[in-house]
Amino acid sequence: RHASGLRKIPEILARTDLALSRSDPIMDDVKAGRSVRRAIIYARISKVPRDSGARSPANRVEGKSVDQQIAELTAIAVREAVEIVAVRRDDGISASRYGARRTRDGWREVMSAIASDTVDELWVWEISRATRDRPVWAALVSACLAHDVKISVGGKLHDPHDPDDGFMLDLGAALAVRESAMNSKRICRDV
Fold it and tell me: Which of 8, 89, 122, 136 has the fewest Cβ atoms nearer than 10 Å?
């Protein structure tokens, strides 16, 4: 009896596979090797290293740290068969309320991509790369919730709708805000 059951497994799998391929367009994409996850990568560094030769925003040399963030996130996305629809970066621009209030063009494009439903996931190396500012964090989470966008931090995917994932994201953001505030406090004390 056991041997006859084992012989039927390929037939059952074939029927299941056929049924899935007819009724599920996502499975068609998976079988064809197409990604069903669309991500935007965002990387940032607050200060471009002095030895980079940066003199102005027009001829600024891109920071190595940003390149490393992008390279590592891209490698993870390739491994996970995630389609990278865009890579945005801001070199030498703070994401803190204490930094010079320069516009982060890369970040603005990230938020536009989320609002236009062109991405399913935002990928950052760590939360502080996205922001160290509470109102900006709140706007990001609100946009992600409204457009069902998940946030990948260092390759770990978090769903803001999930209470545990949301808590971990908020905790990471709170730590990033605190770190920025502590740095500002130290600088003001030393002046």
Answer: 8
Sequence-distant contacts of 65-73: CB under 8 A, at least 24 apart: 66/91, 69/43, 69/44, 69/124, 69/125, 69/129, 70/41, 70/43, 72/125, 73/41, 73/43, 73/123, 73/124, 73/125, 73/152, 73/155
| pLDDT value at residue 102 | 72
3 sits in which H/E element = helix 2-23
Model confidence, pTM = 0.69
Report which DSSP code applies to 99.
Answer: S
Bridge partners (DSSP) of residue 122 are 40, 151
CA angle 85, 91, 93 (to 5 degrees): 115
44, containing H or E segment: strand 38-45
- Each residue of 54-75: pLDDT tens digit? 444 444 444 468 999 999 999 9
- pLDDT single digits (tens) 33-45: 555 899 999 998 8
Residues shown for the chain: 191
Distance between CA atoms of residues 130 and 138, nearest Å: 12
